[in-house]
Design a protein that fits this description.
Blueprint (H helix, E strand, L loop, with lengths): L2 H19 L5 H60 L19 H16 L2 H6 L6 H54 L4 H10 L27
Length: 230
């Protein structure tokens, strides 16, 4: 969550707290305050969703990498070695069963590994003859399925995090728009109550955009000004 969105969420929470302590009585104003409460509640839900997606993606990525660089690569290397031996009997097999590139994407790795296993399955008897365990291709199928599930889980969690982040940004912006309305309402209803007006201004003191101070232009130097230093 970026700092701007966090400030808006904090502002929304402060304003809701103030409004609950000093509730409106007119229905139209109550409706505005209620809309803000709903936005703040939704914002809190989105924060949880964003965090959940982040943690889910991290966990799925760790599992995906563990499968890829652990059991899956061990099985694939064994398959390649047996295929190299079998290719001496069947030359057309040479170079058809090889390890996927290690610098490619997870999707590319999965596609290459799947094609590799399919090619091996079509020469199962020959590979078993040259030392391939009967269960290795089945083990590879299971490992690939687990890898694909972990990769899809990581992708889904990442998408959920991005969706929550974008929705949170939108909700935070809407909260500020509602607070601007509440600011006008409170300035009017507390116009003769200095203490309450001050309390409101304190509760909403981060309202509005944050701008960098701009120094005034000093203008051209005066006639006969300072001399340049040699």
């Amino acid at each position: 969550m970026n700092a701007g969105v966090r400030r808006k969420l904090d502002l929304g929470a402060k304003v809701v707290e103030f409004t609950l302590a000093h509730p409106f009585t007119e229905p139209a104003s109550v409706a505005v305050a209620t809309r803000l409460e709903e936005k703040v509640a939704h914002g809190k839900e989105l924060v949880v969703q964003q965090r959940t997606g982040q943690l889910g993606a991290r966990s799925a990525n760790a599992r995906r990498n563990k499968i890829r660089f652990g059991a899956l690569m061990t099985l694939l290397r064994l398959l390649v070695r047996v295929a190299e031996v079998a290719a001496k009997e069947l030359p057309e097999l040479a170079g058809r069963i090889k390890l996927p590139p290690q610098d490619g994407s997870h999707q590319a790795f999965l596609a290459a590994a799947t094609m590799m296993v399919a090619e091996a399955a079509s020469h199962r008897e020959l590979l078993v003859k040259h030392g391939l365990a009967e269960s290795l291709l089945d083990d590879l199928d299971r490992a690939l399925a687990e890898y694909e599930a972990a990769a899809n889980g990581a992708l889904g969690a990442a998408r959920a995090r991005v969706t929550a982040r974008l929705e949170l940004k939108r909700v935070a912006t809407e909260m500020v728009e509602i607070i601007k309305i509440l600011d006008a309402l409170n300035r009017y209803r507390f116009r003769d109550e200095e203490q309450l007006l001050g309390a409101w201004l304190s509760a909403s003191n981060v309202l509005g955009p944050f701008r960098t101070a701009v120094k005034p232009d000093p203008g051209p130097p005066a006639q006969g000004g300072t001399k340049s230093v040699a």
